[in-house]
Amino acid sequence: MDGDAEKKSEAAAWDRPPANGSEPQDPRPDTNITSAEAGMGEPKPKPKPDADTQTGETTAPESLGDELDLSSPPLPKLRYSLLMTGLGCGLFLAMLDTSIVATSLHTIAAEFQDLERINWVPLAYTLTFLSCAVLFARISDVVGRRAAFLSAYIIFIVFSLACGWAKSLDQLVAFRALQGIGGSGLYSITMIVMPELTPDEKKKIIAGIVGIVLATAGVLGPVLGGVLTHGPIGGVSAILFYLSWPEKKYLPPLERRLWREVDFLGSFLLVASAVLIVFSFQNSGSEGGTWGEAVFIGPLVTGVASLVALFAWQFYLERRWGDKMAAAIPLALLRNKAFTAGMLTTMAAGFPYMLSLYVFPIRFQIVNGKSALDAGLMLLPMLAATAVGSALGGVFNDKKNRLAETMVAACIMMIIGCALETTASSDPGLEPKVLGFLVFIGLGFGLSATGSTMLAATESTIQEHASAQGLVAQVRILGGSIGIAASSAILGVKSKAAVEAGAVSASQLSHVSSEAASVSPEQWAVIRGVYTDTLKEGMTVGCIVLAAGVVASLFVYSRSRVPIEEKFRQRYREEAERRQRTAAKPESPHVPAKAVV
């Protein structure tokens, strides 16, 4: 009855003639939100509420009919292009460094005489990257997007240079970890600002572009290796970003948060759980498979306990404070079946992807005798396929929502590639089929990158869009980190077996380059066999993980799914209702909608 009365009242309001002779005004409540916070939509200008930006107090509108000005005029084309270039370079560099040392690991290991611990060089970056992505997004709600992004750039550039000056493996690992903190900020802030400042007519292509950058940057890392230095590129793109940052009139008004609302405890528990769990496998692998000893059990148990404490804390936050606290892991997202399934699928795809980026270049150098540059160039087929897969993911979902099919196809393509790679031999001659099979892995990962980016945007509310993208990045890198650790564990077991059999010495396996002259042809055959068996077993494990990913991807499907564009409109309406409810509560602790500088 109330609904019928409301409709009649609305219809009567449309029929009433305006008092001043102007066009009739739409009597419906505000359904507009910040165009910047959504992936696409059509924002409408509304009047702003009064607010005290110093105290954070909000003056609520007199009624829910009072409308909020949450729109912003489009940026001039030149300024927009320069800004997107700066953001794109930041995103590219952040993802590039997840794999840029892949072809250099063998050289770095020879330089520091430490092949057993060399995988900590990539792991240090990926672990801090995955741990701080959501935290950086939350901090940007407090200090502003520009300050957070420039801070991330400074951290990234400074410690990129420091990595080049490292005098020991321990220093290099430490600098890579700090570099990863900056990289996480470059990623998460870019994923927020790009849709916020993109004109409505261009928002449809954002997910596809981001997917291509994410996918190609990872594969380009080993190819570029030491060809590029971060200093010049990072410095130029940071300057572009700073100079092209728009004036306040072009910035969308967003809800500011306070420092006390940031979930630092949750972020700490997230870091602890990720680092300790990966550390247990990586460290045990480098020790030759000490699975029953304290060096493995201790960190693993502590990491799992931290993970349990993390979720317990998130449940407490949600029940005690609701959305007044910026949780490290928004549980509302995890209750979304499609989003959670997409996260698990993304993590499964990240496992063989990162494993391939690090295992194949080392194998090309040790088994096939290729240089670091040649080893990187041999990943070009995978790069090309990744770009094609990213583009196809956007095409498949242009008119209809086929995200479930996209994610299933991604895992199946990667399974085919991993399974075929298990046929590689330990012969010193390079087998062309090994390069050809990488195409399937690249194609599948490209589909996954675009599909997961779109899924995060459509299955999250506008308020949690940044957190959703951060979580997708985190699980992708977590899966990759576990893949790297798994390869280390497999190599450790295979190496230990070869040493115990008396075929080679531990020193010959650990310092292949420096002791090449003392290795006989028979021993070289054993070494090639160790690295080939490591590859085969890693690909086999990758197939198992991806099979689980196929099962998870089936739950992305929904009978009631709607086209991508319509899904965004639904998110607009939901956010409009939420903001109207918030505007009616003067006790809200958030700083009101203002342009976030």
UniProtKB/TrEMBL annotation:
Keyword hit for Transmembrane helix: yes
Feature: compositional bias, Polar residues: 52-61
Alphabetized SUPFAM superfamilies for the sequence: MFS general substrate transporter (SSF103473)
Limits of the Major facilitator superfamily (MFS) profile domain: 83-561
GO CC term (a single one): plasma membrane
An annotated Gene Ontology molecular function: transmembrane transporter activity
Compartments, record wording: Membrane
Pfam family for this entry, one: MFS_1
Transmembrane segments: 80-102, 122-140, 147-167, 173-193, 205-221, 264-282, 294-317, 338-355, 375-396, 403-422, 434-458, 470-491, 538-557
Principal localisation: membrane
Topology within the bilayer: Multi-pass membrane protein
Stretches with biased composition (Basic and acidic residues): 1-10
InterPro entries in alphabetical order: MFS, MFS_dom, MFS_trans_sf
Protein name: Major facilitator superfamily transporter
Lineage of origin: Eukaryota, Fungi, Dikarya, Ascomycota, Pezizomycotina
